[in-house]
Amino acid sequence: MEGASSLLDAEAVADLVLLDPLTEESLVQTLQERFRRHDIYTYIGNVVISVNPYRSLPIYTPEKVEEYHNCSFFAVKPHIYAIADDAYRSLRDRDRDQCILITGESGAGKTEASKLVMSYVAAVSSKGEEVNKVKEQLLQSNPVLEAFGNAKTVRNDNSSRFVSDLGTGLAPCWGWEHGGDGDMGSGAASPTGTPFPDPAPLPQGKYMDVEFDFKGEPLGGVISNYLLEKSRIVRHVKGERNFHIFYQLLAGASPQLLRRSTPRGVGDLEVEEELGRGFWLNCHLLSPQPEQLKLRQDCRHYGYLNRESSSLPGMDDAANFHAMQDAMRVIGFSPAEVTELLQVTAVVLKLGNVQLSSSFQASGMEACSITEPQELREICELIGLEPGTLEQALCSRTVKARDETVLTTLTVPQGYYGRDALAKNIYSRLFDWLVNRINSSIQVKSDEQRKVMGVLDIYGFEIFQDNGFEQFIINYCNEKLQQIFILMTLKEEQEEYVRESTSGILAMLDEECLRPGVVNEDTFLTKLNQLLATHKHYESKETQNARRVTDASLPPRCFRIHHYAGKVTYNVTGFIEKNNDLLFRDLSQAMWAARHALLRSLFPEGDPQKVSLKLPPTAGFQFKSSVAMLMKNLYSKNPNYIRCIKPNDTKSAMVFTPELVLAQVRYLGLLENVRVRRAGYAFRQLYGPFLQRYKMLNPRTWPRWDGGDREGAEVLLAGLAFPAEELAFGHTKIFIRSPRTLFDLERQRQERVAQLATLIQKMFRGWRCRTQYQLMRKSQVLISAWFRGHRQMNRYKQMKRSALILQAYARGWKARRTYRRYFRSSASTCLANFIYRRLVQRYLVGLAKNLPPLSVTDRTWPPAPYRFLDDANRELKNIFYHWKCKKYRDQLPPSRRAQLEAKLCASELFKDKKTLYPKSLQQPFRGDYLGLKQNPKYQKLHAVAKDKLVMADSVRKVNRASGKTVPRLLLLTTEHLVLADPKAAQPKTVLSLSDVRGVSVTRFSDGFLALHLKELSTVGAKGDFLLVSDHLIELVTRLHQTFEAITGQALPLHITDRFSTRFPKGDVSVTVVESPKAGTNGPVCKKKGSNKMEVLVH
After folding, report:
1. Separation of CA 1045 from chain center
2. Dihedral sign, CA of 86, 87, 90, 92?
């Protein structure tokens, strides 16, 4: 009952519903006290409040997972695992779709909370090979999306700058907490021409739909990308960074990848490592290679990176780049897709370096032109486009008036707008393509019925000193989420919070953008003042003047909305511009004309045959549609809430700032949540846990109640004389209206527990004293018995010792008297020993003068002069012979030693195993039978072998299909085995010795061998090799020595008449038969069907 005890802690209640008195100060003070105790989680009923500790706490261990698994929500201490377990069990057991809504400002721990929810679901759900595969792909989508969708902001080093809807089976959240001050969707509206839409901004956050089967096992999911903060591509404030991918690419890619100007050869493995991380090596060797990315590694060279250093404490961009490449490989990206992705990323980065200059035409009109064409040429080389086409699209635009088409030049500001709009569009659409590509790998393929758990990680209300279009749409989204909270949780308070002013303002903003004539922020504000003048949640300078209200805090070009979290003043500057956010058609058509497959696919509207004059939807319209789709998704699920709070602005561990927390408590509406929850009954609990906790307060229920839980609770409370209006009995729960009643109940329990503890202590002390006395009495009796026994034992030992001394003196006296009579009897032994030593000395001196010659072939040895020296003589003979052999080996030159070692190795491999071995004893191992150095015809082969040649010989290769043999040149080096054409003297097959699996030979006197290769090797995929060699013993011996030197393992050698070999079409059984039909020219191979071969040897 640890959780219940924590819930009722008077100083720091775990459920704020029980807080008394209920004020903002007491609520913040309770959160602070619990935070001081490292209790970062607090309940408001079934709503979890999480305060970010900015440090690791030991509360997420596997033991904690087991503690909260299948446990009652209020039976344990408040924890995020409790709400995750409750949601998962409701989904699995009650077949109810769930959603977990996580809110809070940047740095409050929302992303970490969503990770903890998903990790808990992963831990308690079933495991399996297929589930683990889905889990791995989902996990690896994190570094990819984080690289392209996250950036450093003022508030966060790894802020998510996109909104996604992720359906996962075990999806971690990608990215840490996001900042709240990004400039989303900036740009200038096009004065003329038909533009294409630029994806609108959306509040930063993440929504995840976890999909399970009927057993509760995760299946996978889908990422639904809403919108990206693409304005960060062209502009970010000092102290922030652009998206991580730019810095990772420049820091992690090798110079060869960034500046490679020629296609990669076979040996350019470093660049291959950068593009494919080694996994796609074989694919790349067979496919055309990309041109250089034409980038520099210095971040200060690029305008879109603010020409600032890329260093960021605690973040390794190079390592993250390699992690992203590994993740793409796991997800299933092809090498061509990775190459095109990096090329398009490089194009976006280089667009920021395209500079424009102003000039004047003959007509006097201002025009712009490219200042330095080098960057433009490199961009066009990357995407396969003529530089003139892109330059014309950047510096001019096509205007259609009725049936006429006019090409007009752009001013420098218009040109820079077009350049930035193109960069933002390319990156935004590239991110959409990336999300769709990941979807193709992780989405659920089956059609079976699925259950869904959604996790929404969304930024809370933003109230800055200067609030613009971005803050307006963020707060609009939060208003919608608050409506869900009211509708699904606080239904009786719904009318107080439902507001439609923000939605109406977005509609009026769209109407103003589409209206003909002069359109600007002033006309938009005038329209708001006309239509919303009487709305109780809308204020502006004009409406205040009409009401004769003076408010100096409301500037002229601003309006104020009364949100549920407070009043927010918005500056209308930029509303029209950011709501339009258009792209010139000329730029779309230029991108469609590029020969780059990926870039071309991102701009389908650029096809001249699909020209549409329909106006694109505005950012506000797209945003409202996205939020409506999100709301529809959330309305279909059962909600669970996690409110995240940031305790300080400095990210300091365990530092609590009450003023900052109070502001978050207000705009999160926590106090209102508590009040609505307490409008009915403040405390509710199942009958069983309630009776178990308080049964000691009534003698009828203590110490054991044999009836039902509800009857026991009624009997218990009947004896406590509480007012009837304070209690209510439900079907499964007891309800207590006032926190005071609950605290009184808890006080009585503590007093009764103290009484019971005193009684238990009294009984225990009496039992302990009695037990101690009995033990002391038993010990005294035992000690007395042992003492008496010890005293008698010592007396006996003294008597025995005295008797032994007397006996010893008597036996000594008797022995001495007998020795004096027979003391000369040992003289013969002394004489015999002297003679023996003298004979041994004479033998050794004579042996030293008559040692045999030092030749190792001479095995003679003088015989022993006496029989008793036979064993010693044989041992000395062996020692002398081994010594001679060592002296002989020490004098050998290295080449001779190597030959003898090879002969010894051949003896170990083939002696008494193969008939051919005795014939090879007299033949020296020459190694080079081709004369590579002397024969000019083999210069190329000599260059291949270099100084690593071990053996060169002519062999015959057996055709796998017909069994016929063809001549080949075999070169064995310290690392490879090469088969070459004897006529052209060109290598045909190059094998790495590590790819050799084993060798099979026959037991007859033939030169036939089978070289078995590993299936996973490049050459091994074609099957094993069958060879015939005239120097088989030497070839296999040297191959064995070289293989053992490289791998540290002995070469598997099989000497048998029947073995299996692997051909491209399957395994073939080879049978070796000794037959006179073979002749003297070598073995004869005959195919016997598709999977048998017979080899006739002489």
Report:
1. 37
2. negative
Q: Is residue 897 left, alpha or beta, with left meaning phi > 0 and alpha meaning psi from -120 to 50?
A: alpha
Main-chain phi, psi angles of 160, to 5 degrees = -75, 120
Report the alpha-carbon distance of residue 916 to residue 914 in Å, rounded.
5
Q: Where are the alpha helices (DSSP H) in 277-411?
A: 281-285, 317-331, 335-351, 373-383, 387-395
Rounded to the nearest 10°, the torsion over CA 625, 631, 632, 634 is 150
CA 7 to chain centre: 37
DSSP 928: B
Euclidean distance between CA atoms 530 and 525, whole angstroms = 9
Kindly tell me if the per-residue pLDDT of 475 is higher than 70: yes
* Beta-carbon contacts of residue 989 (< 8 Å; ≥ 6 apart): 978, 979, 1019, 1025
The 8-class DSSP code of residue 616 comes to P
CA of residue 768 relative to chain centroid, distance: 58
Q: CA 837 to CA 817: how far, in whole Å?
A: 33
Is 111 annotated as belonging to a binding site?
yes
Q: Cβ distance 188 to 520 under 8 Å?
A: no
Tell which residue, 104, 19, 45, 180, has the closest CA to residue 668: 104
Residues 284 and 269 sit within 8 Å (Cβ to Cβ): no
Please tell me the distance from the alpha carbon of residue 342 to that of residue 604, in angstroms, as a whole number: 21
DSSP 353: T
Place of tokens 């190459």: 339
Burial annotation 984-1022 (CB, 10 A radius, 16+ → b, else e): ebebeebbbbebbebbbbbbbebbbbbbbbeeeeebbee
Any known ligand binding at 719?
A: no
Query: What are the residues facing 568 on neighbouring strands?
Result: 561
Residue 480 neighbours by CB under 8 Å, 6+ apart: 627, 630, 631
pLDDT of residue 998: 93
Helix (H, G, I), strand (E, B) or coil at 1094: strand
Tell me: is residue 106 an annotated ligand-binding position.
yes
**Are the C-beta atoms of residues 369 and 356 closer than 8 Å to each other?**
yes
Q: Can you list the alpha helix ranges (DSSP code H) found in 489-563?
A: 494-497, 501-514, 521-531, 541-546
Whether 943 has a binding-site annotation, put simply, is no
CA-angle at 525, arms to 523 and 531, nearest 5°: 100
Hey, what are 267's tokens? 């040996």
DSSP code string of 464-482: -SSB-HHHHHHHHHHHHHH
Residue 720: per-residue pLDDT: 86
Q: Facing residues of 954 across strands?
A: 969
Per the rule left: phi > 0, alpha: psi between -120 and 50, beta: everything else, 194 is beta
Cβ–Cβ under 8 Å, residues 964 and 1081: no
Region for residue 651 given its phi and psi (left: phi exceeds 0; alpha: psi -120 to 50; beta: otherwise) = left
Element holding 677 (H helix, E strand): helix 670-678
Look up the pTM and report it. Answer: 0.58
Q: What is the pLDDT averaged over residues 180-204? A: 33
Q: Is position 267 annotated in a ligand binding site? A: no
Phi, psi of 656 (to 5 degrees): -120, 120
Quote the pLDDT of residue 574: 81
- Going by the DSSP 8-state scheme, the letter that residue 959 receives in this structure is P
Report how far residue 603's alpha carbon sits from residue 1082's, in angstroms, rounded to the nearest whole number: 68
Query: Residue 1041's Cα: distance from chain center in Å?
Result: 42
Q: Is 468 among the annotated ligand-binding positions?
A: no
What does the pLDDT look like over 610-664, one tens digit per residue? 776 677 777 778 778 878 888 888 888 888 889 999 999 888 889 999 999 998 8
For tokens 């002749």, the residue is 1079
Largest CA distance in the chain: 153
Q: Give the burial class of 488: count Cβ atoms within 10 A of its Cβ; 0-12 exposed, 13-18 middle, 19 or more buried.
A: middle
Residue 23 is assigned to a ligand binding site: no
The Cα 494–Cα 508 span in angstroms is 26
The β-bridge relationship of strands 638-645 and 98-104 is: parallel
The response to whether 612 counts as a known ligand-binding position is no
